[in-house]
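User: Run a structure prediction on this.
Assistant: Running it now.
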Amino acid sequence: MDEEIHDSPDERVAGHIRRFLDTGGRPRPGMNDLLLTTRGRRTGRLRRTALVYARDGDRYVLAASNAGADAHPAWYLNLVDDPEVIVQIGTETFTASARGATPEERPRLWRLMVTAMPSYRRYQEMTGRDIPVVIIEFGK
């Protein structure tokens, strides 16, 4: 890809991205981390962030927690606008399609995410919004 990718402006997240890249995608042993690149809804630039994921069959599941903030994270707003994303797991990079879980899918997938990262439960308690659950599908 010739287009420049811009890492999260949040220094904590940018540091996590650097560790991900420096370790071949294994920045935190025992955690499933991926890099998600979305197209900025206002700038049109490629934006990269690091996220915890869970597997659901062939799909990958994310939580748009924003650490319990009352606003959705920018990456989530970007993929709502343009669902075509780039995902890096380990050293492999794929294009994929992202979508929010339906109201019927969300309860089971939310439990999956809380199992993957128990702090999501606390994040949900901290905010008045329902934290979106995102499904990443390949080959759609």
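Residues 11-22 form the longest helix (12 residues).
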